[in-house]
Amino acid sequence: MKSNLLPISEEGLKTVAISAAIAALLSLLDFEFLAFIAFCITLFFIYIFRNPERVLPSFDKGSVTAPSDGTVKSIEELNDSEYAYKIVIESDYLDVAFLRIPLDVTVESVTLYKGTRVSKKSKLFNDMNEYATIVFSDEYDNKCKVVHQLKKSCTPLFLSLIKKQNLRQSLRYGFMLNGITTLYLPSNFRLNVNIGNELKASESLMGYFS
What we know:
single chain; 2 domains; eight-stranded antiparallel beta sheet; 3 helices
């Protein structure tokens, strides 16, 4: 996943291929209207599973970039000995679904919990939906905890991480189509985002460790 150079994500290739095959079959059978609908659905799948390249801007050392595309929904100060800030980023089907490493890190821990993929409006959402918890740390032992949780989605949450793995900022590490990313950051972090900001993974600056 980290070196995936295909224009469509590996997670979406099967879905796109099946949709395109159905469109072709319907066209051969002269079901023109249904073939047109299937063709439009195929284009939609190609779009939501797109895999654009991202250029890492020249931020100073200690920078933290967005791990996912989406909109900043909330920023909360925490009374916690380990983390002082909680930032919630919500993405939808129109956002690029790839997850990217927010800073040069070592993977301290990674846990993926399989579950349902019900709507965020459901009472089961917080307790039952699929999610992952990851803790990253940099060379100065600055920690960043990231939680990814799926909303209603046509594909599961994918991660390509191993504990104690060393990774560079901006590398792809996962795929989440239509979900919520929550970042927990310590008190020595200086925020550079506001509620309502539109973020792009690896290109949008979240802030700096002091």
